[in-house]
Amino acid sequence: MFELCFLGTSASAPSIERNMTSTLIVHDGQRFLLDCAEGTQRQILQSGLGFKEMRRIFLTHGHLDHILGLGGIVSTFGRWEAISRIEIYGGRWAIDRVRDLMKVVLRGKEVEMEIDFIEVKPGVLVREKNLTITAFPVLHRGSGCFGYVFQEPTKRPFLAERAEELGVPAGPERRRLVAGETITLTDGRSVTPDLVLGAQVQGTKFVYVGDIARTDEVLEPARDADGLVMEATYIAADEAIARQFRHITAAEAAQCALAANVNQLFLTHISRRYNGAQIRAEACAIFPNTFVANDLDKAVVKRGIG
Ligand SMILES: [Zn+2]
Ligand SMILES: [Zn+2]
Prior knowledge:
There is one protein chain. This protein is α/β, with parallel strands linked by helices. The protein has two domains: about 1-155 and about 200-300, Metallo-beta-lactamase, Chain A (4-Layer Sandwich), CATH 3.60.15; about 160-195, no CATH class. It has eleven helices and 16 strands. It has helices spanning about 40-45, 65, 70-80, 90-105, 160-165, 170-180, 195, 215-220, 240-245, 250-260, 275-285; strands at about 1-10, 20-25, 30-35, 55-60, 85-90, 115-120, 125-130, 130-140, 145-150, 185, 190, 205-210, 225-230, 265-270, 290, 300. The chain has a seven-stranded mixed sheet with strand order 6-5-4-3-2-1-16. Helix 3 packs across helix 4 (about 90-105) and helix 10 runs parallel beside helix 11. The chain is globular. One zinc ion binds near residues 140 and 211.
């Protein structure tokens, strides 16, 4: 299960209602910040979620409306919060730009912070017991733009009642069965994992895409995702402007979600020229399960719900 908090939902520049784009993702107590627009740290405070355990930041690309907030966040972390090390993931373009920004922030002794810059290449970035994060390339303006797939593993639930009936004691024996080992009980009977593990349950798949010029690159990575976050900078009536600035329309995002068999689509990065209702009307006509995010909206992405 992934919990989303849309910290900012505006494209390029803020409006009175919307800050620029950043999204906080919470999974199993871990927090991931996706992009970090100017003003993000105040949005985090307003969300009520705070800075705790926020050590990994993933950048979709190097445009200023996605990275400028890193200066402020690092300054605050380095002086006031008990966070002394963060990881910043991004394509080379984004990383180079953020390194330059950090030269200003970390000059002198005022701010002390260890930053690991991790240059993203297509493929697996993070592989942990309960989560794999994979990057895939997308087209926008500039090189090194990425989308991210957050995938929980497929699991077989442990059937405690069956284990009880079979006389498997609580403790290491049960852990070994979950790990796929056959065990022998003290009375000599053996118990195989199949006797105490249920049918396979697929983990939740969540996909995050930043600014994009076309949706072709998203189709396969987003296939059958439970949740897909995507930009909807323009509406179809302004498709020519979308092409010019290498963005997409709400209709194109919705068509992508439909073609990729996604369960729920979340739209963000909305141009100041529109209100949410215009974006929603256009997208929902094609893909009804669309949620147009406003600042500080929260949502849950979980297999089988939404
Ligand atoms: Zn942008
Ligand atoms: Zn951009």
